[in-house]
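Design a sequence for this backbone.
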């Protein structure tokens, strides 16, 4: 099988991973309804399911894949979902009314750290520098949320200003943005692991790494409505405890082969083993991995706030990092480990 064929199968596999697993894993009335983007941020959840970590907490978990942050955050705010695995920036945006028009989640909070973002500016094989992006159109998740502001900041630090030197369009989540690059619909975007490595294997270029430019950054988190969390504190703490246990398990090199097997088991039939090998290398070897103990990086949250204050909608005063994070559920989870 050619590298192109393998990567094409990997792409389809990641997109369908959540839904492919649903019939076997989601009971008719799940205890917790989780909404997440397809991709590597779900690996700890898959491990917690496979290894019985959720079962040990007397929890049943069902995952719904989201095509974009608008669907995800609207569903969480309306109560269609209990927990969202989403970016920290989305929590802040929708809490402060800077997300999709008319959608505000006044009690949204992050309760668990998942990953530091693993963000990379990835460009077409012919694009080898930021300067070569002048006059081009770049892909982002949504124009006002997600990781768009990281891209804008990295472009500015390399002398390019939105509207003057380049434009952006909304192209959906990391999976959709990766696919848009693959089909040459856009010349560059902000990608995260393992999509950055998949793109590199196709000849695309990594122009910059966010952590090297911006310092600490809080990427994916588990977010809830605070009122729901208080009413379901035991279940939520159990979810966090199982997730932290799964993250620790994934970081143990002795579990590498089984971790890849679990990842591969979430892929549709016919997916080559290289899909799991690529994901493991991209996330747990080349990137920083997951956040141990499910700990949120408050310095990283401050970076998210600074970027939103600079590039987001004017006229709204953002608050300090602790306002958007409720540590009580994680504290209870860690006490009970």
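Sequence:
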């Amino acid at each position: 099988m050619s590298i192109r064929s393998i990567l094409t199968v990997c792409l389809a596999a990641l997109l369908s991973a959540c839904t492919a697993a649903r019939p076997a894993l989601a009971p008719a009335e799940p205890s917790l309804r989780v909404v997440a983007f397809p991709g590597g941020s779900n690996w700890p959840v898959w491990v917690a399911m496979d290894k019985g970590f959720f079962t040990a907490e007397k929890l049943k978990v069902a995952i719904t894949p989201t095509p974009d942050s608008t669907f995800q955050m609207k569903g969480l705010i309306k109560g269609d979902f209990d927990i969202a695995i989403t970016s920290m920036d989305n929590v802040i945006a929708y809490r402060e009314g800077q997300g999709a028009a008319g959608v505000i989640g006044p009690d949204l909070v992050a309760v668990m750290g998942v990953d530091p973002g693993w963000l990379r500016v990835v460009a077409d094989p012919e694009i080898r520098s930021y300067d070569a992006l002048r006059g081009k159109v770049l892909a982002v998740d949504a124009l006002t949320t997600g990781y768009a502001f990281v891209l804008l900041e990295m472009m500015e630090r390399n002398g390019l200003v939105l509207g003057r030197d380049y434009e952006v369009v909304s192209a959906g989540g990391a999976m959709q943005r990766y696919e848009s690059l693959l089909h040459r619909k856009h010349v560059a975007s902000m990608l995260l692991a393992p999509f950055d490595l998949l793109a590199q294997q196709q000849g695309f270029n990594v122009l910059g790494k966010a952590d090297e430019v911006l310092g600490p950054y809080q990427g994916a988190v588990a977010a809830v409505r605070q009122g729901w969390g208080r009413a379901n504190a035991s279940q939520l703490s159990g979810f966090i405890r199982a997730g932290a246990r799964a993250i620790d398990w994934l970081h143990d090199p002795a579990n590498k082969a089984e971790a890849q097997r679990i990842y591969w088991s979430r892929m549709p039939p016919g997916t080559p083993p290289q899909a799991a090998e690529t994901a493991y290398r991209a996330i747990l070897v080349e990137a920083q991995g997951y956040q141990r103990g499910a700990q949120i990086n408050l310095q990283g949250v401050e970076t998210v706030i600074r970027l939103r204050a600079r590039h987001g909608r004017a006229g709204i005063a953002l608050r300090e990092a602790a306002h958007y994070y409720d540590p009580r559920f994680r504290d209870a989870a860690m006490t009970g480990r």
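Strands lie at 32-36, 61-65, 83-87, 108-113, 119-123, 137-140, 167-170, 188-192, 205-209, 220-225.
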